Amino acid sequence: MARAAGVSQATVSRVLNGNAKVDPALRELVEAARRELDYVPNASAKSMRTAKSETIGIVASEILNPYFPRLLDALTREARGRGLSVLLWNDEDPMAPMAQAAVAAGSVDGVVFAAARESTQGVDLLAGRGIPVMLVNRGWRDKPVDQVTSDHEASGYQAADYFLRHGRERIATVFGPRDTFASPAREIGFRRRLDEAGISIAPERWLVGTTSYEHGWAAGMALLAARPLPEAIFCSADVIAFGLLSALGAQGVQVPEEVWVMGNDGLPMSAWQPFDLSTHRQPVEDIARIGMDRLVARMGGAHDDPHRILLPTELIVRGSTAHCA
Amino acid sequence: MARAAGVSQATVSRVLNGNAKVDPALRELVEAARRELDYVPNASAKSMRTAKSETIGIVASEILNPYFPRLLDALTREARGRGLSVLLWNDEDPMAPMAQAAVAAGSVDGVVFAAARESTQGVDLLAGRGIPVMLVNRGWRDKPVDQVTSDHEASGYQAADYFLRHGRERIATVFGPRDTFASPAREIGFRRRLDEAGISIAPERWLVGTTSYEHGWAAGMALLAARPLPEAIFCSADVIAFGLLSALGAQGVQVPEEVWVMGNDGLPMSAWQPFDLSTHRQPVEDIARIGMDRLVARMGGAHDDPHRILLPTELIVRGSTAHCA
DNA sequence: CTGAAAGCGCTAACAT
DNA sequence: ATGTTAGCGCTTTCAG
Predict the structure, then answer these.
(1) What's the rounded Cα separation, in Å, for the pair A130 and A222?
(2) How far apart are CA B71 and CA B60, in angstroms?
(3) B311: which strand partners?
(4) Would you say the C-beta of A25 is within 7 Å of strand C?
């Protein structure tokens, strides 16, 4: 390439990186040669020399969770907009071994944890070594690690508040796993609002299981077994609510006339007619943008205290709660 | 690392790569030091020296298509099982510029095209330069490029055959975009079976649009406007069928009593009670496994003719067609 | 402002 | 069987 342009290797580097002052004539020579040859600098050589890879890794453990594609789409767009490549690790191990190895090998400059489950050790290992780490949509109050998340606890609180404001006090709830971040936070928020109102829920109406259609279905069947029916049911994830609504429908229970149902996540699917589900929309694009901003700042050497950013969710009222009985 | 183990750099390399014979005592020395230091060889240096990155790229243009997560999950698992890293490019440009740049920079050894749309130019550029390229779930009869895909045309043929075998001859169809691979192939197969039976479909009952719930909904509304209703409707994607079923339901049309509906893809969601959709299941895991096998062979230097592998889909009969009117 | 040269951390050829 | 050495393609001093 330097030969083709008739200049030194150093000049090529200077032109391509735009750092130093180069004579316009030489610059044009280099750029012509680059166009001619479709030249792209070798990433390994550059990375070895600079100790930067211009690549981030994303740790994902739940690609099949219907919540994930939106987040992945947003994250990859943000990365692209910043000239960063994305390594995707489909890894459910809490140690995040693929991330550890890639960081140790210098393959990535930073790591986004998008995994739903609480993989403390993997994050600790990286953060402890000073590697730029970003937690998206995972609250983790005590850890000195950057994190951007929608305010799961507030959305739980607001869901309960919405039920109570509309006079629905005989309530049931269906939650996802306790070893994730979002679901327990929503539980805490929901319970807090109930406590304020002095309302309690019997254990058999406070169900915990997986984040899945199947769990929602099973929960629906279980809740229908006892009378009187709840006036309102909160699900910690839309996909759970889909299963619940399906079970209610299969048993001939009218929503919202007999029971209100509210989900959480704001999946596009929640607007589909058979569900028409009231829910809280998560600001996924904002999470990705702000999170990536922060990660890039860390990779650029920012040494300030970790940020913990909570973004508000937006209540979307649809047919599953809209019409009073 | 060589210093820590008290041996030469070359011996370290030999132990870690396991290629050459090394004295067991020295080997143990090296391995002890590696455990001690958590040493991982620098990926850039290795890559520069070997001109291999042990990384593949995946070109994806439709992360939000509900079909995609299963494929991505399967592909990343297969890659991990082979010790390959995965760069994900969320890129809807037909030239696949991110893939071009990464290949030119030596960042990847091979490229999987998982994009639904027909991005001919990007594939041509890579394949023309002899880069290992794999097309998953995209038929491309004429191109000298490896490809593994479910047999979209056969699944269309079988869907029509199923309708006709059950005496459903007043048929409507709802397809996805013509500039993709899967949908037109399904169209061709479906039409071929109809032609064999001498059955034709009026243009207003042969709808083409996007692969989306919304298109399915709109198609449903359009098809309901004319009487008599079709006896059976084929959708080229499950997600279209979801919209169609929703529209039929909203208009009080009974499925399957009044109309049969069949989808295509075999999404897990198609089993959900509100849809209970007959469909063709794509062998996504097999596609990923066989495709990755082939790509790895190419990256290993295989120079034989491109493979074009068609995998059969499996008809799943559910409530949307099961019960005769 | 430009070129020459060193060196990033590996692997492979060569020498022992 | 092991060590020594060259060199992959860049960026960055350092001279000029």
Answers:
(1) 48
(2) 10
(3) B150
(4) yes
